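User: Structure please.
Assistant: Input sequence and predicted structure:
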Amino acid sequence: MTYKLFSFDKIDSTQTYAHNLVADGNAHDRTVILAAAQSAGRGRYRRTWVSHHGNLYASFIFSAAERGPTLSYAVAVAVAEALLYFKIKSEIKWPNDILIRGKKIAGILIEYSRNFVIVGIGLNIKTNPTVKDYQTAKTDDYKPGLSREEILSVLMTQLDFWMGQEFTDVRARWTELAANLNTPIMYKGKPATLCGINDDGALVLRRGSEYALTFGDEISI
């Protein structure tokens, strides 16, 4: 299956451009907005996403008949599998980070607009930012010479595959790739154990003999 591609050397944000396409009535299923750099890249909660030249910054537009929490898992698995295609092993940190040995190499941002879902993916290839609160990585650290175009092509294939799978299969693969499963984490300032995800896509946490479900809150490792 093919995608319609909009490619830019530099724009403010691929995610913003995608939202504008939807707002203007010009969005179509399976559209990709790609930029070599962004001046106002963003992640969850509108956090700044440092976007220098040399990396992959893309927003994918898909038709979305319904909304739900399970899509994020399929996208995360697709990104991890795209890296694995190039023999780069990674882990998924809930809800939207891809890690290599604890270092963030990619982030995912999923937003809905009208009858579409916009999937933003930022992946470090040639450069990785220095961030105060966590370590980062890039594909050149593990497999030098990969191009943005190579990774994008494989990523498209993986997105097509995993977004088309039953959630039971996505859940099983996500569980295999999940970081810090069955280990202590911090949730809302208190320790808990990350147990996995349930059939509805909720994260399952345990504190002592009590269990909690969460869909969108962040955890700390």
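The mean pLDDT is 89.
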